[in-house]
């Protein structure tokens, strides 16, 4: 018996502004074992999704009576080094509020470049080092640091652009949606779940057909969710066998759903 009724995969982008229509923003959805279908923006009047319209659409979906597993491909938190450098409370809600105060990338007409170059916000007071990597990135193959900008496969821009929208949804559904693993490693069965994903873990296992790379990433997330849920593998995904110290750190830094090989962290 599957845990979830519905699965959503979101391929993210940190380009331009929160109200920019971006071809690289893609959303796929599936109910049960049905094949994932792409969801196109319905009420924005734009050809492609904006980060803002995705957040509002997702807010509506999470209000529907379906237990939903949502995967978004950007970092949900920062390395422990960041918390130590800026003396930030090791609490995810506090982290999100502090970040948005300095990086208001959710505001209209506000690009990351404007923040980075000091024209708005105060991002220069909350920067990181590209050599800092979260434990989940160390355990994965190929995942980049959330501070490694302007390189192929970079997740830095999408993370810095996406975190304010996680806070937006968090403020709407703090008690009704489980933000994994910050709300605990084992989600309550009555809740929908939002989790960080890394599509490269799964995209190679599915035929790309006529989909673009961004479409295929979102599609692959949904397919992987379905397979894991119907094969009773999700419980292992939600509870990776982490060393005790690593588990405590990952509760602060976040973890990529689906990474279960933690042998590289055995010295912690």
Separate helix tally: 9
Number of domains: 1
Helix/strand order: EEEHEHHHHHEEHHH
Q: Would you identify the regions where 5 or more consecutive residues have pLDDT less than 50?
A: none
| DSSP strand tally | 6
Report mean pLDDT, rounded to a whole number: 94
Could you tell me the strand content as a percent range? 5-15%
Q: Structural class of the helix and strand makeup?
A: alpha/beta
Report the span from N to C terminus: 35 Å
- Major β-sheet annotation: 6 strands, mixed
Multimeric state of these chains?
single chain
Q: How many whole angstroms does the radius of gyration measure?
A: 17 Å
Helix content: 25-40%
Shape: globular
Identify the strand order in the major beta sheet. 3-2-1-4-6-5
Overview of this protein structure:
- 33% of the residues lie in helices and 10% in strands.
- By secondary structure, it is an alpha/beta fold.
- The chain has a 6-stranded mixed beta sheet with strand order 3-2-1-4-6-5.
- α1 packs parallel to α6 (156-173).
- The longest helix has 18 residues, at 156-173.
- 46% of the residues are buried.
């Amino acid at each position: 018996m599957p845990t979830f009724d519905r699965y959503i995969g979101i391929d993210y982008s940190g380009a331009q502004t929160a109200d920019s229509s971006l071809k690289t923003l893609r959303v796929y959805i599936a109910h049960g074992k049905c094949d994932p279908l792409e969801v196109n923006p319905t009420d924005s009047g734009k050809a492609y999704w904006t980060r803002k319209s995705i957040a509002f659409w997702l807010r509506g979906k999470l209000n529907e009576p379906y237990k939903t597993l949502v995967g978004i491909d950007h970092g949900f938190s920062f390395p422990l080094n960041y918390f130590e450098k800026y003396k930030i409370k090791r609490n995810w809600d506090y982290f999100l509020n502090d970040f948005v105060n300095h990086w208001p990338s959710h505001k209209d007409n506000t690009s990351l470049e404007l923040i980075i170059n000091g024209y708005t916000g105060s991002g220069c007071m909350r920067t990181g080092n590209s050599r800092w990597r979260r434990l989940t990135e160390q355990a994965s193959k190929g995942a980049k640091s959330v501070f490694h900008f302007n390189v192929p496969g970079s997740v830095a821009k999408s993370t810095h652009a996406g975190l304010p929208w996680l806070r937006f949804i968090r403020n709407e559904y703090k008690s009704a949606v489980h933000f994994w693993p910050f709300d605990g490693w084992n989600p309550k069965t009555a809740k929908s779940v939002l989790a960080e994903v890394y599509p490269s873990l799964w995209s190679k296992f599915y035929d790309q057909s006529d989909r673009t790379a961004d479409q295929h990433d979102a599609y692959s997330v949904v397919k992987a969710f379905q397979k894991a849920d119907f094969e009773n593998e999700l419980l292992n995904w939600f509870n990776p066998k982490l060393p005790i110290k690593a588990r405590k750190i990952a509760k602060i830094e976040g973890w990529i759903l689906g990474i279960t090989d933690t042998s590289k962290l055995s010295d912690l």
